[in-house]
Write a structure and sequence with these properties.
eight-stranded mixed β-sheet; alpha/beta; Rossmann fold
């Protein structure tokens, strides 16, 4: 199920409303300052798993790994996990990237979109993309979601099987603005866990949406948002540090008691070690203090050093402080050779204990 508030994205072939400059959400993250240093996501491949991708869009086509400027080659670059739809505008087993709901085009555009002119909508315009359609007009199943994840582990040619896959062509990151509710077959909640953990084991950063069930606490409810191997993100109101009202929030309620006890134990230990800290403490658990990832073009192999909780866990409680990463990252970024885009768009996530 896609995470969208107002129905399908409208297709505008002539793009009359195309932005005349960089999108405000991109500007707000200070990404253009990193671009100015020469880091735009080059050498990175981002995979979009969604309703498909309109690959011929002028802000997407130049960045498609299957396009060399003159010819298209969809082998190893596109897969369709929709095999049994009825009346779908893209049909079944589409041999080329196709978007039946125009949502996937939007999400991959937020990651890499740029037409080479004034239509700059993406965070990492130097990156390449590949894609997989895992929903039939916004409706998925565990089998469809897993099939795309399997494809990303080792992309294979059209009409072939994973036996012909090449892990050397796997993406660095996947963007996933969807969730699998009980109505789609994710009843227990662990249906996708092994597949998501396989992405992590393969070195693929799987970025997933927290969901649109806010604004209360413990509204992160559908997999893969609450897996430890997922990098779960929420949404900000454009141009502000305010978490969007619709954005789901953690923690998972059934794990709250264990988290509270962990924090009590930690503070008690501090009280014993420092005489100035009272032995009796009152704990106030913040609802959603975001760890705002301001610069998204950062070195992949610096991840562990820059972000101790690089892969956040939505099952844990947010700490009551905010780390703002802006131009202070420039010296470190400038010293590293391999930039990467962590997330698509102006997003927030909680820095967990």
């Amino acid at each position: 199920m896609i995470f969208l508030n107002e129905g399908p994205i409208e297709e505008s072939p002539l793009q009359p409303g195309a932005p005349a400059t960089i999108e405000p959400g991109i500007t707000y993250t200070h990404a253009p300052n990193v671009w100015a240093l020469g880091f735009r996501g080059e050498t990175i491949v981002i995979a979009g798993a969604d309703t498909g991708i309109r690959w011929t869009h002028n802000a997407l086509k130049p960045h498609y790994r299957g396009w060399d400027g003159q010819n298209a080659n969809h082998n190893f670059n596109w897969h369709d996990s929709i095999h049994d739809s009825v009346g779908n505008p893209c049909g079944n087993d589409s041999p080329e990237p196709c978007d039946d709901f125009f949502h996937g085009s939007h999400t991959i555009g937020t990651a890499i979109g740029d037409d080479g002119g004034t239509n700059q909508i993406g965070m990492a315009p130097g990156a390449k993309w590949i894609g997989c359609r895992n929903m039939d007009q916004g409706n998925g199943t565990p089998a469809r979601y897993i099939e795309c994840m399997e494809f990303f582990l080792a992309p294979y040619p059209l009409g072939c099987t994973p036996n012909e896959g090449d892990p050397a062509l796997a993406p660095d990151i996947t963007t996933n603005s969807w969730g699998c509710p009980a109505s789609e077959g994710c009843i227990v909640g662990d249906e996708l866990q092994a597949a998501v953990e396989a992405q992590e084991a393969a070195g693929i950063q799987m970025v997933v949406a927290a969901g649109n069930s806010g604004s209360g606490c413990s509204t992160v409810s559908d997999p893969p948002s609450f897996y430890a191997a997922s990098y779960t993100v929420g949404a900000l109101n454009t141009g502000t540090d305010t978490i969007a009202g619709f954005s789901s929030r953690g923690p998972r309620s059934r794990e709250m008691e264990a988290i509270v006890q962990s924090r009590i134990s930690r503070l008690r230990a501090q009280a014993l070690a420092h005489a100035t800290i009272p032995a009796t403490v009152v704990i106030r658990l913040p609802a959603a203090h975001p760890w705002r990832l301001r610069i998204l073009l950062v070195p992949w192999h610096c991840c562990g050093r820059l972000f101790p909780a690089c892969r956040t866990r939505s099952s844990q409680v947010a700490t009551p402080w905010i780390t703002r990463l802006s131009l202070s990252l420039q010296p470190l970024v400038a010293r590293r050779a391999r930039p990467i885009t962590f997330m698509a768009g102006d997003v927030s996530t909680s820095r967990r204990l």
